[in-house]
Structure formats: structure tokens, C-alpha cells
């Protein structure tokens, strides 16, 4: 891990409020949140039509600490659009074969074709944070990644891919609160992993890795955008609004849809034909 004095000095300008107190503003009212979210999701549908019409290729990278809210934002971006256009990629740990490949090889396989938007729920940036902190890669591998990542991303951008990178910034207090909520909620216990708990103990190791990542990979052609995520509702709205502002999409002309008349040439009682079949009991 890069920890020399010069690296620390350079990283100061990227400092966030992650080590400070949680955001104590009043929670955004649900009704207001849902109204604003619907407006933004309508725009996402327009973006989808434009991407399909123009054959654009877009990659969205979502990184951040455990429990920072990556999954929640991705869900709100994708819940009203087509999964054939907005494709979510959340890769598991690499298998033995993948470990022997070029590091970025398994990510390249998921890059978009024309008319696709790929959302990486964690990405090649595992090698900038999780892997070096938890000892899943060597120091040399980590440093080589930081040296070469900008060239990899420059290649994507030069090939016509729009690359947008988000770092979800959560405070120490809020991260701890979310972990405790996961422990107590049976619907969220599955989200809690040993690496999540380790992220609490190694908070400052992750901070150092984050700062080194920003210094090496926050470039003009593929900058990082930090999303303050202590307030999940505001974070989701702010992130989606910013995403839409980064892409010069326009309304795409569409044909008027007309529902055809039903063909009754072979009309019969198709409801009665099902009476002898098995139905799910009406318990509700």
C-alpha cells in the first residue's frame, strides 16, 4: 500500500467528512423524496431511449465503504428501466483461473455494447481498496494498479465509452449504525459479511487506500465524484440528478402506440379450459 509522506501530502486535498460526525439534518420526508425520485426516473427512461437510439456506451462505477449505500442507489437507477439496457455487474471473488488472468480481463468482458449502460457495483477498484487492505493482493500489485489504471480508463474513453465514477462517502458513525441495523433486522442480516465487520476495525487503512486511489485515478477524462451518503434519500436523488447532468441526452421521437383489436376467428371459452388445472390457493 502506498503510504509514503509525499502520497499523504498529495491526498489531503481529497479529504472528505468520512471520519467526521454523521449528517444530522432532518430526514427528507418520504413523500417529497418519492415525488422527486419519480421525476428523475422519468428522465432515466428518456436517457434509456436516447442511448438505444444513438448506440451510446456508458459505464457507471460505484465504489465506497461497506454500507455506504451503493446498492440502494443502483436499485433506484434501475428499477423503472430495462435490464437489457441498464445492466448491473456485481462480480464475486475471482476463481483460481481468473486470478491467473490479466487483472482487468474479467471486467473487460462486461463492457457495454452499443445501446447499453453498465453499472459496476464495485469494480476493478477492488485492487485500490479492499484487496490491499485485506491482503488479497501484494503491495507490488497494488502499486502497479495505481500506476496503470489511468491508461486502462483512458483506453475506454478513447474508444467512445462514457465513464462516470462515484465514491459513496459515509461517516464512521453512520456506517456503524447501519451495521447494527443489519444485525437486528432479519431481512438485512444477509448483507453483513466478515469483510464488513473488518471494515470497521480497519477504517483508517481504508482511508489511506482511498486517498491514494484518488491521487492516482482522479483524472480529467475520468474524474471521481463523491456522493455524501449519510442521508440515503438525498444521496440517491443527488447522484441520479448528477448522472443525468453528465450525459447530453435528448428526447427521442417515438411512434404513437395503438393497441390492435383482438382476433376472434378462433374465439372460445379459454377461461373454462383452465378449470381442471392446478391453481395457487387464494390465501390473501
Q: Can you describe what's shown?
A:
With 284 residues, the chain is of the alpha/beta class. It has one domain: 3-Layer(aba) Sandwich (Rossmann fold), CATH 3.40.50. Helix content is 44%, strand content 11%. It contains eleven helices and five strands. Helix 1 crosses helix 10 and helix 7 (139-158) crosses helix 10. The longest helix is centred in the N-terminal third of the chain and has 25 residues, at 30-54. 28% of the residues are buried. The model is unreliable at 1-16 (pLDDT under 50).
Keywords:
single chain; 284 residues; alpha/beta; Rossmann fold; 5-stranded parallel beta sheet; disordered N terminus
CATH superfamily: P-loop containing nucleotide triphosphate hydrolases
User: The biggest beta sheet, please?
Assistant: 5 strands, parallel
The top level CATH class name:
Alpha Beta
What is the distance, rounded to the nearest whole angstrom, between the alpha carbons of the first and last residues? 56 Å
Poorly predicted segments = 1-16
What does the overall shape look like? Answer: globular
Helix content: 40-55%
Give me the strand/helix succession.
HHEHEHHEHHEHHHEH
Briefly note the CATH topology name: Rossmann fold
Secondary structure tally: strands: 5
> Structural class of the helices, strands and pairings?
alpha/beta
**Whole-angstrom Rg:** 23 Å
Number of domains: 1
Q: What percentage of the residues does DSSP assign to strands (E)?
A: 5-15%
CATH architecture: 3-Layer(aba) Sandwich
Amino acid at each position: 500500500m502506498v503510504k509514503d509522506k509525499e502520497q499523504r501530502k498529495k491526498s489531503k486535498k481529497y479529504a472528505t467528512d468520512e471520519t467526521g460526525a454523521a449528517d444530522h439534518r432532518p430526514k427528507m420526508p418520504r413523500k417529497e423524496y418519492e415525488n422527486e425520485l419519480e421525476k428523475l426516473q422519468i428522465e432515466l427512461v428518456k436517457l434509456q431511449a436516447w442511448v438505444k437510439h444513438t448506440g451510446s456506451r456508458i459505464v457507471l462505477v460505484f465504489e465506497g465503504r461497506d454500507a455506504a449505500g451503493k446498492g440502494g442507489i443502483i436499485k433506484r437507477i434501475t428499477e423503472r428501466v430495462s435490464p437489457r439496457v441498464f445492466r448491473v455487474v456485481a462480480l464475486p471473488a475471482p476463481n483460481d483461473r481468473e486470478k491467473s488472468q490479466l487483472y482487468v480481463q474479467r471486467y473487460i468482458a462486461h463492457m457495454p455494447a452499443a445501446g447499453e449502460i453498465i453499472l459496476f457495483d464495485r469494480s476493478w477498484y477492488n485492487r485500490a481498496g479492499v484487496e490491499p487492505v485485506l491482503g488479497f493482493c501484494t503491495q507490488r500489485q497494488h502499486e502497479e494498479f495505481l500506476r496503470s489504471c489511468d491508461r486502462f480508463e483512458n483506453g475506454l474513453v478513447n474508444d467512445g465509452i462514457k465513464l462516470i465514477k462515484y465514491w459513496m462517502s459515509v461517516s464512521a458513525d453512520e456506517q456503524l449504525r447501519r451495521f447494527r441495523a443489519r444485525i437486528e433486522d432479519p431481512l438485512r442480516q444477509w448483507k453483513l459479511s466478515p469483510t464488513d465487520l473488518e471494515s470497521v476495525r480497519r477504517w483508517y487503512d481504508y482511508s489511506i487506500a482511498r486517498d491514494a486511489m484518488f491521487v492516482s485515478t482522479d483524472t480529467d477524462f475520468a474524474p471521481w465524484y463523491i456522493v455524501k451518503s449519510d442521508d440515503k434519500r438525498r444521496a440517491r436523488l443527488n447522484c441520479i440528478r448528477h448522472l443525468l447532468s453528465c450525459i447530453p441526452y435528448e428526447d427521442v421521437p417515438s411512434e404513437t402506440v395503438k393497441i390492435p383489436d383482438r382476433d376472434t376467428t378462433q374465439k372460445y371459452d379459454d377461461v373454462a379450459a383452465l378449470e381442471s388445472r392446478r391453481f395457487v390457493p387464494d390465501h390473501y
